[in-house]
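Please check this:
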Amino acid sequence: MARSHYRLNAETLLFEVTHISGGVKFKRFVYGFLVSLLLAVGYYMIYIQYFATPHLLSMRRSNADLLVKYDLLNKRFEDANAFLSQIQRRDNNVYRATFGLDIIPSSIRDAGFGGVDRYSYLEESNHASILIPTSQQLDILLKKAYIQSISFDTIAKLAAMTEQMSYCVPAIQPVPANKMRITDGFRFRINPVDGRPQYHNGIDIGMPTGTPIFAAGNGVVETVKYTFVGYGNHVIINHGFGYSTTYAHLHKIMVSEGQSVKRGEQIGLSGNTGKSTAPHLHYEVRYRGKPQNPMNYFSSDIDIDEYEKIIANAQENKEFD
């Protein structure tokens, strides 16, 4: 049974039965539906904003777990980097110093990655702000580890040649200790020949002409030369491992270029050739081309008897070779 609708008649002040058309009823229905729909959507948005669904709660827990793991990963990167830095310092100050190697500067160890953007492929990711810094840390850590591994390889090779190196370092005097009369040292001085100030890159050992001169360490004769002004007759021995020695103003040279010599082997006789004011030996030690004070290389525990044994062994080995 259809419901009746009444309307107040303003003139008669009576309620009269009215009839509503189908179109009006439809409009009212649509309007009510839209209002209800909007209210439902609004209620839903408010609900999910303040009252999360189980699925949303699960996603939030997963994200929180990932952030915790990311922080732990970054902490592990920091710990690994700190540990590697300790190894680098020990490498520079202990291992490389022990074998006379130059330190590896931080400009090489900590150098970044130039060129193209290595991480452009990550920029489109929703997690780019997390992935890119982590990738950078990993790449830097791997590069530092690679450089350190190369340094350790170099040290390992030198360590394997420690015995060979001990014979090559110029560790004995070029003449026996009882004939060591130092007439000029490793210092800044006025040149006795031309009166000019200069640095004296070696030591002068005064001795009579014809005094035997011996190689201070194993090596290969690199230079046999005569210069009228300067060293006169002189010999340069390359000992390897960055070391070389020079024996100048010789009266006679008893070795030739390319010849292998042993520590204690006679290489010539002292003299007064070249730029010299009296018979003496000018002796130099260089490490990687830089002059060193030869006095720092003389073994203080070698006495005359030990020195003569070294010379005798060198002569015996030479004859055996």
